[in-house]
Design a protein that fits this description.
It is found in: Cytoplasm. One of its GO terms (cellular component) is protein-DNA complex. Keywords: Copper, Cytoplasm, DNA-binding, Metal-binding, Repressor, Transcription, Transcription regulation. GO terms for molecular function: DNA-binding transcription repressor activity; metal ion binding; transcription cis-regulatory region binding. This protein is an all-alpha fold. It has one domain: Methane Monooxygenase Hydroxylase, Chain G, domain 1, CATH 1.20.58. The chain is 85% helix and 0% strand. It contains three helices and no strands. The longest helix has 37 residues.
Length: 93
């Protein structure tokens, strides 16, 4: 079971909203909408994806990393390294 399993429906709903935002962006470009309006919607979709990312990271730390640390050993070190690398990717983007 994944850490986000308890709120899987919530994450899926958020991702479906993002999917709708991206389809809306495609329509805006197809319809030659004003650049700033398109950029504003891109920023909104980006923020929505960031919110999903942060929620998933929080769940990962609370569930997967915490469990690995409780068990100790090499698996714990690996989970912490994995989480650190994921955080670094989120910060860079």
């Amino acid at each position: 079971m994944r850490g986000y399993s308890t709120d899987k429906d919530g994450y899926l709903a958020r991702l479906r909203r993002v999917e709708g935002q991206v389809r809306g962006l495609q329509r805006m470009v197809e319809n030659d909408e004003y650049c700033i309006d398109v950029l504003t919607q891109i920023a909104a979709a980006t923020k929505a994806l960031q919110a999903v990312s942060l929620g998933l990271m929080d769940e990962h730390l609370k569930h997967c990393v915490a469990q690995a640390i409780a068990e100790g050993g090499v698996a714990a070190d690996e989970k912490v390294r994995e989480a650190s690398e994921a955080i670094a990717r989120l910060v860079r983007s």
